[in-house]
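Page 42, continued from yesterday. The earlier attempt failed because a stray header line got pasted into the input along with the sequence. Redoing it now with the clean sequence only.
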Amino acid sequence: MLAWVFSGYSDFLPHSKNMHGRLMEHSKLTLGVGVSADGCSSATCDCLATSLGCTPRTALRHTMGLWWRGTFSLSFALLLHAFHAKFEVQAGISFTADRRFYRLESRVGRDEAYAGVSIQLLDDNSEPKWREKTWLATGPPKTEPIEGKAFFERKHVHRRSVRGAPSYRTEYRRAGEEAKGAHPRQSDPHLDTSTFALSGDSAHNQAMVHWSGHNSSVILILTKLYDFNLGAVTESSLWRSSDYGSTYTKLNDKVGSRTVLSYLYVCPTNKQKIMMLSDPEVESAVLISSDEGASFEKHPISFNVLSLLFHPAQENWILAYSHDGKLYSSMDFGKRWQLVHDNVMPGRFYWAVMGLDRESDAVHIETRVAKGAQYVKCRAQRCTEANRQYLFPGHVDTNSLVVQDEYVFTQVTKSGRASYFVSYMREAFKRMQLPKYCLPKDMHIISTDEKQVFAAVQEWNQNHTYSLYISDSPGVYFTLSLENLRTTRGPTGNLLVDFYTVEGINGMYLANKLVDHRVKTFITFNKGQTWALLPAPAADVAGSNIHCVRPFCSLHLHLEMSENPYTSGPITSKKSVPGIIVATGNIGTELSSTNLGMFITSDAGNSWRQIFDEEHNIWFLDNGGALLAVLRAPTPIRHLWISLDEGKKWDRHTFSLAPFYVDGVLMESESDNHIITFFGHFSHRSEWQLMKIDYKGLFSQRCMDGDYQTWTLHNKGELCVMGEKQIFMKRRPGNPCMLSQDYSRIYSSEPCQCTAYDFECDYGWERRSDGKCSPAFWFDPNGVAKSCSAGQSFLNSTGYRKVLSNNCKEVGTNVYSPRRQGCRPRPPRGLRLTTGSGELSALVGSNVTFVVHLQDGDSLRTSVQLDFGDGIRITYANLSRADDGIQHAYRATGIYRVTAAAENSLGSDSCVLYLHIISTPRPNTHTLSRLIFIYSWGSFRTWQVYLSVLSFLTQPIVTLDGSISYTFQKEGTNKVTVQVASGSAVMQDSRDITVKEFFRSLLLSFSPTLDEHNPDIPEWREDIGRVVSGVPASQLLVSLYPGLPTTAELFILPDVITPNEHKRQTPEELQMISDVFVALLNQGRVHFELKVDTRIAVHITQQTLAPLVDSTALHSGSAMLVLISVVFVGLAAFFIYKFKRSSARSKSKMERGLQKIFSHQIMVWTSQISNRLCQSAFMEDDMMMKKQNKKKKTAIRPSNLNRQLPSAITAA
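This time it went through. C-alpha cells are written below.
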C-alpha cells in the first residue's frame, strides 16, 4: 500500500468560513492518490499524513513502483511554487514493516530569499535512517535560513493504542536543529488528542455545550439552526458522550425525531438532572433526564417558558417565567406546574435564601401595578392573595427589586429624585444613606460578598462614568471608594462596570478609572481604602527594556467580562491559585484597544511580566498548576501553548493538523481527569468538530512535599495586608508534577496590629491627602441619635470604621474605634412631616399615614402633637411612639392644614403640611418634577401653576398666579410654605424668612471649581454657607443665588438687642464692619476646602444681580427688610459684636480692634474647621491695613451697601 499526500497554501484560493463567516488568510489545496493491493486498505489519517497497514514486502514493491509518481508530483509542485510566493507543498511516503512505522517526508517551501527541500526517513524505534537538506538559492547565497524565516520540519510518530485507535504526538523544530529521536518515551511531555465530527449538523449555527464535571465523563452538546428571519429554532440535534468526549451518540431518536430543542438547562445542585425545552412553535414541552441525558421523559406544558430559575438547595424546585409575564413553580423537576403570580417583571423573581427566609419555598417577586410595582413575598405553592406579604410600604420603581444574599434592595423615585432602600437579614427596610450630595441618578449592586455591599452609583454630575461606594455591614451607610469608574453597555443594554474582584486574595480589586479624559487601571490591597496605578513590566516579551515611570506611564488592563461563556475573557484569576492574574492590556498613558498584549503577575499585582504580544484566551489547568493559552483571533489556528512555571516558559503543542476555528473551550480545571474539549469548525460548511485533549502526559508524577515552595503576600513591601501576614504555598515553577486537588494554598496566617489603613472613613467623613479622615462639609460630627436621652450614653464615631473582613488585632486603646459619650439634652430641631406614600393628595375616606421626622433632639423626652386640620388632634408623650406613622381618614374633600409640633424642656419646633382630599383621582395635566423656591425673580411665572398656597399667616393665601407679594410689619423670623398643585400631583417647599430694619450687603463670587460641584439645590447652598464659618445666622447671613456661575450675597445684620441692652448698632457701624470684609475678600484671604484637594476661594464681585428684596417705597406704615435664609455664611460675627459693645468709643479704635479680632479669628477657624478659611494671619501693621481699606472703600463698595428699608418680598 502506498500513498502520496500533497497539501499546500495559496493566497489566490478562497477559503471556507466558519459558522460566524470568518475568512482565512491563506487557502489550502490537498492532492492525493492511494492504491490498495493484496487485500490491504489505505486510510488517510489526516490531510497531511497517511497510515498504511500492508505487509512490508508488498509495501516496498508498490513503493518502488510508484516512486515515479511522487517524483513527478514533487516536480510539479516546485514549478507551481515558483509562480506564487506563499505556496508550499509537502509529500510523504509511509509504510510499515516488522511492526515499525516508516515515513519518507519531504517539504518544499520558499520565503523571500530561498526555496528548499527537506527529506527525512524516520521509523518509530530508531534515529533517522537518512536525511538530506537541499537549499535552492533564489537570492544571496547563505548557508542557513535567516532568523524568523526558517522552515519547519514536521515529525509524525504513529503508534497503535491498546484499542487499536491511532494517537499522535506532534513536535515542531526549526530546520537545522538536531533530531532528538523519534521514539516517544513515556516521560516526554505530550498531549493525546482525538477528534469527533457531529455528522449532519453542518448547517447548525448555534451550540450549547455542557460537561457535568466533578470527574463525570458525560458531555452533552445541543446544536441548533436558528433562523434570524423567523426568529426561531428550526432544527436541532442532541449529542451525548460518556467517555470524556472521545465519541458521541446522537439522541434525536430518544427525544423525538420531530422535536426541536431550543434550550438546555442543568440543575446546579445535581448535575445529573437535565431539562430540555422544546421550541414552542412546534410543541410546548419539557424533556427531563435524571441520568445525565441517558434517558428522557417528555411532559407537555401549557405556557411558553422564557427562563428558568433553580432553587439553590432543593434540586427538584424550579421557577419558570413565561412570555406573558406569569411565574410558575414546579416541585417535581418540571413534571407539574402551578401558577404563582401574574404581572411579574422579567428577571425580578428570586428563591428564598437558606438560613434567612423562614420558609425554604418562599419566593420574592416584583409585580407590575398601576402606579409602578410592588414587592411581594409568598410561598411558591401557596401564593394566594391571603398568603401574600407586602414587606415594603408603598410602591417601588419597576425593575428595581434585587434579592442577593443577606440583602433585599429596592428603589423609589419621587419628584424626580431616587431613593434607595435596603433590608438586611430580612429586617425592616431602611433608606440607604449615600453622601448627602451624591444625588444618585442610577445605582447597580456589584457585590454583596462578606456581608458588605459594593455599589456603582451614577452621581448627578456624571454621564458616562459611575463611582464605587462601599457600605457598612447592614448596607445602610455608604462611603466613597473610587470616583469615575469606566462603564460600558452590553449587547442587551446592561451596564458593564470596569471593576474586577481578584480571586484568592482578600480585599484585592482592580478598577478602570477616568482621569483627565484618560482611562487608567488602579489596584487596591485594602478593600478600596487606597488605590494605586499598576507598575509596568521591566521588559517586553522579546526581552527589550521598557522605560515606563508612574504616574506618567503604567500598565492598563481590560477588565470586562467575556460575553462568550466558553472563552476566558480578557482577565482571569483563580481562588485555587492565589496571587496569579493573567490579563489583556497595554503599557502607556491610558487604556487602549490597540497594541494589546498578555500580562501576568505571580505576586498579586506587585510586579508584572509580558507573556504574549497578541491577545490570548487563558485558562488554569491542573487545579491551577498549569496555564493554557489559545490565540484569540478570527483566523483558524492549530497550536496551543502550555506553561508549567507561571508563564515564564511556554511550550507550543499542535492540537489539530488542519487549521481550526475554535468557538469555545470546555474544561473542569479543578478535577483529576485532565481533559480539555475544543469545539468549532474546520470551515463554514464543515461539521461541528469536538476535539478531546488529554494533557495528563505533561506531568511525570503527583507532587510531593519537596515540589512546593512558599511565597509571602505583600503590598509594595508591606507584609500586613488586610490586617494579617499571609504566606502561601505553590508548586515550584517548572516541576512537571500534578497538584492534588485538596492541597492547602495558605501556609500560615498571623494577625497584625491595627493601623489607620485597616479602617475606612465612616459615613460623613472623607480621607484627606495625609491619610486622616475628617468630616465632610455637609456632615455634623457632633450629631447623635434621636433615641439618645439625657443620662444615657452612645458610641460616637471618631471618623473611622474597621474594614469588614480585616483581621488586624486592636492592642490597647484604639484611637480609631468609636468612643462612648454621654447624651446631652437637646431641643427639637429639623422637624418634618410627610405622608407614608409621599403624596400630598388622597381620596376621601382613605387612610392617610403621617410620618414625623426629627433631625435632632431627644426623641424620648420630646412630646409630639399632630393637628389634622379637621378639628382632631392627637398627642404622643414621646416621638418614638410615632415611628411607625400615624393614620387618619378624612370624611370631606378640601385642603387641610396638618401641623406637627415637637416640644421638650429646652425648646420646640413645628412644621406644616397641606393635604388635598379629593373625591376622585384627577389627571395630572402637567408633570411637576421639582419645586424651585425663588424670591423676586420673574422666571417662575413661566410655569403653569394651578394652585399656590403661601402660608405664613393664620389663613393661607390661595391663588392661580405665579407670584405673591407680602409686606412684613415687624422684625423676626417667619416660615413660608409654598405648595404647587397640578391635577393630583402636589409639591411643597418651605423656607425661613428673616426680617430686619436695616442691613449691609456684599456680592460674592467663588472659584470656578465650585460650579463643578454645584447641584443647584437649596440644601447644598445652605451647607456651603455653613462650611465657611458656622456662626449664628442672626448676625451674618449669605444667600447663594440659584444657577451658575455660583454667586452669593453677604448680609451683615445688626446684633440682637437683649433686655439688658438699650443701644443697638447704627447703619454707620455696620458700614465699618462691611469695609473690613471688603478688605479681607480683596486680599484673597477667605477660602475653604470643599473636599479632598478642592480648595475654594471667596471673592468680592461687581457683578450686578437681581436683588433679593423689593426696594420700592411702601404706601404707608413702617416696613421691615426681608431676607431669605437660603444659605448662611459667617465670619465670626459674635466676636465682632462683642468687641463693638465693649470698645465702641471711636471709629478709628473700632477699625483697629476689628483688624486684630479678624486676624485672631481667622487662625481660630484654621484650627477648628480643617483649614476651611485662610491659613495665614493678616497684615501685622494696623495702620497699613487701615490705609488699604480707605483706598478700597470707594472703588469696590457694591452699589447695594446702603440699602435700607426695602419694603416687600416676591415669592414664586
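Notes: The longest helix spans residues 1147-1168.
Reminder to self: strip header lines before submitting.
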